[in-house]
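User:
I study polymers; will you set down one protein's sequence and backbone structure tokens?

Assistant:
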Amino acid sequence: MAVNERLFRLLVSSRIEYELLPHREAFTAQDVAQTSHVAGRRLAKVVVVRAPGGRYLMAVVPASCHLDLGSLERLSRLAGLALASEQELRRLFPDCELGAMPPFGHLYDLPVYVDSCLLEGDHIVFQAGNHHEAIRMSLSDFHRLAGPFAGIEALHANLATAEG
């Protein structure tokens, strides 16, 4: 699978400059960062959560971190959030390889909550809808394409803290 068609149409129609970063097949965000030669804190990882009542949210955190569900619950004002299952992801993102969704919730009618630390610096890197390509674009272009965000706050727990 090449770059996700929805994403490609969005980039082309918006006249966004981006760099395609082909890499060896990788299935975890940390592996994508490593094989793309990108710091884990600069690679956006998409985590999809389910709220009671069948509503879904997209959270975007650095690859080097875990999503802090408690922070997302406070920000979204929704209690009882849970990670979406693989089956739910397949249904929500039929044109993406499992776990390689790009961080543009509006392409899938999902509100987006972005970790504030990803909005620092001059660029962002994210998966292109597959497990062998990433995209690097300017942070200003990302903000213009992905926004407005439903929420921007620190949504992560560092891996060292979460595992240690």
Remarks:
- The first strand starts at residue 18 and ends at 22.
- The chain has one domain: 5-163.
- The longest helix spans residues 5-13.
